Amino acid sequence: MANTPTIVVLHDGTPPAEMARIAEHANLRYATGEQLPHQIPGADALFVWAFRSEAITTAWPAADKLTWIHSASAGVDRLIFDELRDSAVTLTNSRGVFDQPMAEYVLATVLTFAKDLHTTLRLQDRRTWQHRVTERIEGKTALVIGTGPIGRAIASQLTAAGLHVTGAGRRPRTDDPDFGDVHTTDHLTDIIGEFDYVVLAAPRTPQTEGLINADVLAACRPTARLINVGRGELVVQDDLVEALRAEHLAGAALDVFESEPLPHTSPLWDMPNVLISPHMSGDTTGWTDELVDLFLTNLRAYVRNEELVNIVDKQRGYVSTPV
């Protein structure tokens, strides 16, 4: 490996200022999606800062020297395509940066529902004094779907707040250090009715896409709330709307959607029991510096021909873990 690799930073229109720290260690090129096919020839690595972009698919034939792609997000479903999957190019992600912030977001939404804070804010806007009785979260049950680092951070946060947390993932097991019992996602309709909160923290894969459908939602407790910080495609959005209308579900907190931004015409906007945030659950003060720190750790390893961290299993679509 050359001591000074050439790295293309794919951005969405404004190159991030944090890249200045990377320029000390690499020859940097900047590219929007349209510019990428012209900038990627001769590049050793690609840093995908515009993580919603799918430009790499179009630029792929011009990537004549590429050996490493790094994503500034934990999810890489928009980056993986057949040619990349079958190639020798290493793909890494930003796993670890977003775990705790997303867990705090989930806890915040649980508390918002339990203490009816969303109604309080609406009443305050109308200067309306309306006393209400709220809920406790201690002793409530939560099912976290997705047992990777983000799911585990969520489990830890909710457990500390007094909830009883169970996991759901690829395979069932007992005595998990963070979840205790882990159920398989193949049988959600059999178990989902046991929980007050259902939290989605799984990556988007062929196995998880459309996981929460009409049948699963109908099996939920009518008092349950759904929280999605994973991917919008995990939920069949039309089925969710119908479940909320039919009161098969008491509410939903949604940070991700099938289509982003969420269209103005979506009925979700007008539902008083729905919390909507614009894909920001993991974005906290200083997060961009943390992303660059992680990339620099991998860049140093890359230059030394050492193993990179957060290598994605391109067949599965996420970083494999031993649990």
UniProtKB/TrEMBL annotation:
PROSITE patterns reported for this sequence: D_2_HYDROXYACID_DH_3 (PS00671)
Keyword DNA-binding: no
Pfam families (alphabetical): 2-Hacid_dh, 2-Hacid_dh_C
Occurrences of domain D-isomer specific 2-hydroxyacid dehydrogenase NAD-binding (ranges): 108-281
Gene3D superfamilies: NAD(P)-binding Rossmann-like Domain
Key words of the record: NAD, Oxidoreductase
Xref: InterPro entries: D-isomer_2_OHA_DH_cat_dom, D-isomer_DH_CS, D-isomer_DH_NAD-bd, NAD(P)-bd_dom_sf
Stretches assigned to the D-isomer specific 2-hydroxyacid dehydrogenase catalytic domain: 15-312
Signal peptide range in chain numbering: none
CDD domains: 2-Hacid_dh_1
Family in the record: Belongs to the D-isomer specific 2-hydroxyacid dehydrogenase family.
Name of the molecule in the record: D-2-hydroxyacid dehydrogenase
Organism field: Saccharopolyspora halophila
